[in-house]
Structures are given as structure tokens and as C-alpha cells.
């Protein structure tokens, strides 16, 4: 038996089995006995499903949560993991809304299907592979334009994302001047090794654009991430420093935790690291004018 992960292949040992819920899919992990998902109420919020103008003019679904009332608020684009727009991602949007933001989670995988209920990682990866970098950037541009057109949001836009979405954060922060700040949770930083999942697409990765990054990004990473080794984190830090870090970006590594430490539906969840990361995330956005 071999566990196929989004960021590498590892045989199932006693150590890796504790983290394996991440790799069997959202549906299985969320229903497991170890899951204790946070549920953020939607009272006094406006929660709705909308469509934005995605890449190629595609009508892309998106989940939105925002404070009620007529005031204008800062906005956060929330980029999902490989499992799509499931309850955890929607809850993150509601958490931001309770902090006074308009939060939008575009359904980047909608063209190919919904990976959230799936348990077959091969099928999930096939869906994710259809969302190439340029398409994702076009969809993100659509989210930015949608936010700029709303009476409920101002032009102070941030972006955050988890795992697959963490990589998107770095790329979007280098692409879009409308994005004022980003927070990337354990997203891949360097090109996958030849033959690994994701290596076939001819595209830049965060390490490749670190020297030209001007939008400040806070990276939140895990010491024991078996798919994102600390070596790649140091490579990214070197990439940022090579340009004297004009963006003032930085990376925090949480000791003793695993990939997915913020995902409260997984066994890899670490409440202390998740709470500290969330506090840093909010402080980062506010310090960089996203409010």
C-alpha cells in the first residue's frame, strides 16, 4: 500500500498514519472520530452563493460571508485546499466576516467537479490538475473585480489560502497590485520533483517569483510537514532576501506540528498553532491596510 499525497509519496509508517486523514479526502476526515470542527454562526451576517466572472468568461460559483449593514469593509479572498469549497472553508469565511471583512471563496474546481465528497485521491487530483496556474489567476482576478464592484467592500483586499491555496496566495500577491497583503498557510513553495504530482505543468512557483514580490505575504508553515520540507522554506526565504525583501514578507515555522495544523476537521489540527496563526493572520492584514 502507498499513500499518494498532494506533495509527495510516502509509505505508511506508524508516524505517517496519524496524518493520513488529510490524504484520504475531506469527507472521510470530517466524519472521523478525531474531528471536532469549529462552527461559526451566521447570525448577523449575510451569507450567500454568488457567481463571478472567472477566467475565459466562466460563471464561477463563490461562497460569500460578510457583516450585515451598509458599511463598506475590507475584503479577503479565501483560497481552498485541494478538497474544494467544503464546510471548513465556508466557516473560515464566516470567521473573517465576524472580524468585519467581506470574505469570498471562489470555487476554483467547479469546471471539473466537486472534490469535497470524494474519498478517492486519484479522482480528487484529476480535478485539481485541471485548475492550472493561469486559469486560477484569471479566476482570482474575477474575484477581485467582483469585490471592487460591491457596495459592501472597499478597495482594501487581502488573500489567504491553505495547502494548494497557500501556493495560490504567493502567486496572486506577485500578480495583482489590487491585493494589499497575503497570508499563505503551508502552500508548496518550490517546483515538485520530476514525476511528482503537479510537476508536469510548465509554470512558475513561489520560489521563482520571490525576488519580484512586492505585496507583503506572511507564510505560516509546519516543522514536520512531510510534503514541504524545511529546506524549501529556507529556499523561499533566500528568494525573498535576494531582492532585499522589498515586500517585507516573512515566514513563520511552527515547531512540532504537521501540514494542515489549522484544519480543525483533521487529526493534524493543532489548536495552539492554529490560534496563533489566526491571530498573526488578522494582525498582518490590519498592519498592511486590509481593514
UniProtKB/TrEMBL annotation:
Pfam families: DLH. This is Dienelactone hydrolase domain-containing protein. PROSITE patterns: PROKAR_LIPOPROTEIN (PS51257). Transmembrane segments: none annotated. Residues 61-287 form the Dienelactone hydrolase domain. GO terms for molecular function: hydrolase activity. It comes from the Bacteria.
Amino acid at each position: 500500500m502507498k499513500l499518494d499525497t498532494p506533495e509527495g509519496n510516502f509509505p505508511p509508517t506508524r508516524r505517517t498514519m496519524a496524518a493520513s486523514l488529510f490524504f484520504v479526502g475531506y469527507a472521510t476526515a470530517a466524519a472521523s472520530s478525531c474531528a471536532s470542527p469549529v462552527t461559526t454562526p451566521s447570525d448577523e451576517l449575510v451569507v450567500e452563493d454568488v457567481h463571478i466572472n472567472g477566467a475565459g468568461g466562466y460563471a464561477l460559483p463563490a461562497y460569500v460571508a460578510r457583516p450585515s449593514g451598509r458599511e463598506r469593509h475590507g475584503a479577503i479572498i479565501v483560497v481552498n485546499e485541494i478538497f474544494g469549497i467544503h464546510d471548513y472553508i465556508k466557516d473560515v469565511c464566516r470567521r473573517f466576516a465576524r472580524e468585519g471583512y467581506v470574505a469570498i471563496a471562489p470555487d476554483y474546481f467547479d469546471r471539473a467537479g466537486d472534490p469535497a465528497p470524494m474519498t478517492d485521491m486519484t479522482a480528487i487530483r484529476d480535478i485539481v490538475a485541471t485548475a492550472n496556474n493561469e486559469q486560477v489567476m484569471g479566476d482570482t482576478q474575477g474575484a477581485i473585480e467582483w469585490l471592487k464592484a460591491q457596495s459592501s467592500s472597499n478597495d482594501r483586499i487581502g488573500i489567504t489560502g491553505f495547502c494548494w491555496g497557500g501556493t495560490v496566495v504567493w502567486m496572486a500577491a506577485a500578480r495583482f497590485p489590487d491585493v494589499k497583503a497575503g497570508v499563505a498557510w503551508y502552500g508548496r513553495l518550490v517546483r515538485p520533483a520530476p514525476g511528482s504530482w503537479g510537476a508536469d505543468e510548465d509554470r512558475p512557483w513561489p520560489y521563482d517569483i520571490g525576488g519580484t514580490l512586492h505585496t507583503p505575504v506572511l507564510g505560516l508553515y509546519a516543522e514536520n510537514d512531510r510534503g514541504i520540507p524545511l529546506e524549501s522554506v529556507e529556499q523561499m526565504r533566500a528568494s525573498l532576501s535576494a531582492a532585499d525583501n522589498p515586500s517585507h514578507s516573512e515566514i513563520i515555522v511552527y515547531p512540532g506540528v504537521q501540514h494542515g495544523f489549522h484544519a480543525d476537521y483533521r487529526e493534524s489540527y493543532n489548536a495552539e498553532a492554529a490560534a496563533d496563526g489566526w491571530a498573526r493572520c488578522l494582525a498582518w492584514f490590519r498592519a498592511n491596510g486590509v481593514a
